[in-house]
Amino acid sequence: MSIENGRLPLVLPGRFKPWAIEVGHGKVLLRGFDGDPEGEERPRVFDVLFQDVSRISLPALRSGLRLTVADPEVTRSEERRVGESWGKARMFLLDPDRNSDYVVAGFVFWAEVLVGGGSPSPLLAEEPAEGSIRGAVRRL
């Protein structure tokens, strides 16, 4: 599996939902489906993995993803509101127009995955199966 540096904003089509949470390892996975799961063609599947997660505020389902890092003022305001300081972790907004949908994390990885919609994410595997990721994994 190759890892490349990616860029923000990350804009991905589809319907995204929280898919997996590993509390002990501080991981949150969002999975997005672009296309009709009931259609003849299999939908494209995107996995976005946040690591070293310290806080999440996510809707059950959202249309599209426009991932950005919150401005320092937005981050400070949310830190004051919840009574915490996140240090070097970044507040990733799922949509720059909605400060309420975010993940505070140290790292983000994403890839288009070539697995069935209900299958575990190759991004969570120690060694992803050959052919389970289209292209490279991108690190933001």
Question: Any overview of this molecule?
Answer:
The mean pLDDT is 92. The protein has 140 residues and is mostly beta strands. Helix content is 8%, strand content 46%. Strands 1-10-9-4-3-2-6-7-8-5 form a ten-stranded mixed beta sheet, with no helix packed on it.
What is the structure about, briefly put?
With 140 residues, this protein is mostly beta strands. The protein has one helix and ten strands.
Which helices and strands appear, and what pairs or packs with what?
Layout (H helix, E strand, L loop, with lengths): L2 E3 L4 E13 L4 E8 L9 E8 L3 E3 L4 E8 L2 H11 L7 E4 L8 E4 L1 E7 L19 E7 L1
Overall geometry: globular
Sketch the topology as an H/E string, one letter per element. EEEEEEHEEEE
Provide the spatial order of strands within the biggest beta sheet: 1-10-9-4-3-2-6-7-8-5
Straight-line N-to-C gap: 16 Å
| Percentage of residues in strands | over 45%
Radius of gyration: 15 Å
Q: Work out the number of β strands.
A: 10
Quaternary structure of the protein: single chain
Keywords:
140 residues; mainly beta
